[in-house]
Amino acid sequence: MKKVHLFLMALPVLALVSCSRDIYVPNQVNVPLLKEKNEFKANLSLSNWQAAYAITDNIAVMVNGQYVYRNWFYSDNSNNTDNDDLFVDRNTRGGVLEGGVGFFKPVDSKKRAVFDVYAGFGQGAFKTLDGAYNEAPEGTAATEYQLRTRFTKFFVQPSFGLAHKVVEAAFTSRFSLVKFNSQTMGPKAFENDPDRRANFMRLGDRAVPFFEPTFTVRAGYRYIKWYGQLLFSVPLNDEQYNNYNVNDYFQPVSVTMGVTLNFGQWVKDAGRR
């Protein structure tokens, strides 16, 4: 827990010195806050698509999809472009697909406070470019500097929140165990830094646990709400990467916004009050 506190305190410093090469971008946490059987909720954003459905009054299933592609946010797609954005690697591309099952229960008489916990499994892949690509001669193939990896992921996420017809808010503690595999790199990636080349290839030596505290808010009315989510991703055994900043390969912060659709009997009944 001390490591988590130090990481959160260091975020402003990391924002100033970050030079990220991200091959793990945490996907948005699916926080459905379901209340009853047959309730359905979906979250839609530019990079994340999620759904959850209650098959009983206490059991639900979820599916999550993520695809990260940031080039459309940049007007210059050439390699002579600075890659040093706050927490974000503009060259990262990839995502994950997940499925999960969980338990939920309203904990007050008006069914506004909800506790839920979900567990699931996913598979994904990311690729990015070594920062030296920015100084490479015009016309150099990006694959010469490419970093690529695949991964499998297990997660458990308890949440507590308030769900009302107008506003929702929740806090989630997601614990993810990510096992990287099939790492590859172009011949010029980290060309003058053999230690870092070896460091990248060691990512698959053992699974990496992440603690990912998340805050979610939604506002709207009944069937449709706007949502925003702030997520921190803290690797819990980053000692093996102690020659580099904690976020050299893992994006430490994620902010997402989008639209939530919610259908269920309680949502329908809320319009009559």
Give me the secondary-structure category: mainly beta
Output the number of helix runs: 3
CATH architecture: Beta Barrel
What does the main sheet amount to?
10 strands, antiparallel, barrel
Q: Report the end-to-end length measured between terminal Cα atoms.
A: 45 Å
Order of helices and strands: HEEEEEEEHEEEEH
**CATH topology tier name:** Lipocalin
Q: Cα-atom Rg, whole angstroms? A: 20 Å
Unreliable spans are 6-18
Give the % helix: 10-25%
Provide the number of structural domains.
Answer: 1
Spatial order of the strands forming the largest sheet: 1-2-3-4-5-6-7-8-9-11
What key attributes describe this structure?
single chain; 273 residues; mainly beta; Lipocalin; ten-stranded antiparallel barrel
Written description of the protein model:
The protein is mainly beta and 273 residues long. It has one domain: Lipocalin (Beta Barrel). It is 11% helix and 47% strand. The chain has 3 helices and 11 strands. 36% of the residues are buried.
Summary of the model, kept short:
This protein has helices at residues 2-17, 194-201, 265-270; strands spanning 40-44, 48-54, 59-69, 93-106, 113-129, 146-163, 167-185, 208-221, 224-232, 234-235, 253-263. It is mainly beta.
Topology:
Elements (H helix, E strand, L loop, with lengths): L1 H16 L22 E5 L3 E7 L4 E11 L23 E14 L6 E17 L16 E18 L3 E19 L8 H8 L6 E14 L2 E9 L1 E2 L17 E11 L1 H6 L3
Antiparallel strand pairs: 1-2, 1-11, 2-3, 3-4, 4-5, 5-6, 6-7, 7-8, 8-9, 8-10, 9-11
